[in-house]
């Protein structure tokens, strides 16, 4: 496995939170994408278009703090416990599949493992102990 990173969900204030984290940790955002920038996604509700779909702030060598807005208009409900995920960056599709199948066994799949528009093989689940996992293999890292 390449690495594990914290991934935070917010109820519409991701940008404010990450600007705060930037003052604490320093550095610059390595990635920022809004929901309105997602290709071929006409179903983004008007109130979510300017919200953050994905943001990344490097914290140091090998660690990145990431986050997203989780708007209720898109079916999300942020509560303590579901606002923190562990993102595992796998070395291959096979490793991603093994990790996903292992962690989701006896738990709940929230997004099936699949190829995505961001050029990754990705899925998410909550394990049988209530821990949220995001499994990702980035095809550009081959």
How does this structure look, described?
The structure is a single chain. The protein is an alpha+beta fold and 142 residues long. The protein has one domain: 2,3-Dihydroxybiphenyl 1,2-Dioxygenase, domain 1. It has two helices and eight strands; from the N terminus they run E-H-E-E-E-E-H-E-E-E. An eight-stranded mixed sheet has the order 2-3-4-1-5-8-7-6, with helices on one face. The radius of gyration is 15 Å and the shape is globular. It starts with a strand and ends with a strand. 26% of the residues are buried. The model has no long low-confidence stretch (mean pLDDT 90).
Short description:
With 142 residues, this protein is an alpha+beta fold. It has two helices and eight strands.
Q: Measure the end-to-end span.
A: 13 Å
Q: What is the share of helical residues?
A: 10-25%
Low-confidence stretches: none
Strand order of the largest sheet: 2-3-4-1-5-8-7-6
Radius of gyration: 15 Å
Overall form: globular
**Oligomeric organization of the protein chains:** single chain
Total number of distinct structural domains? 1
Instruction: Find the CATH topology.
Output: 2,3-Dihydroxybiphenyl 1,2-Dioxygenase, domain 1
> What's the SSE pattern?
EHEEEEHEEE
Characteristics:
142 residues, alpha+beta, 2,3-Dihydroxybiphenyl 1,2-Dioxygenase, domain 1, 2 helices
Produce the secondary structure layout.
Blueprint: E1 3-10, H1 14-25, E2 31-34, E3 52-60, E4 63-69, E5 84-89, H2 93-104, E6 108-115, E7 120-126, E8 132-138
Parallel strand pairs: 1-4, 5-8
Antiparallel strand pairs: 1-5, 2-3, 3-4, 6-7, 7-8
């Amino acid at each position: 496995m390449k690495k594990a990173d914290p991934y935070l969900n917010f109820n519409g204030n991701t940008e404010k939170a990450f600007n705060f984290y930037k003052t604490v940790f320093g550095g610059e955002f390595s990635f920022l994408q809004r929901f309105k920038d997602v290709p071929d996604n006409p179903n983004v509700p008007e109130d979510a278009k300017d919200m953050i779909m994905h943001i990344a702030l490097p914290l140091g060598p090998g660690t990145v703090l990431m986050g997203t807005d989780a708007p209720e208009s898109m079916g999300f409900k942020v509560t303590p416990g579901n606002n923190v995920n562990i993102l595992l960056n796998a070395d291959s599709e096979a490793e991603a599949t093994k990790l996903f199948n292992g962690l989701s066994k006896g738990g709940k799949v929230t997004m099936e493992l699949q190829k995505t528009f961001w050029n990754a093989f990705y899925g998410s689940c909550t394990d049988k102990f209530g821990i949220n996992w995001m499994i990702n293999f980035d095809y550009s890292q081959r």
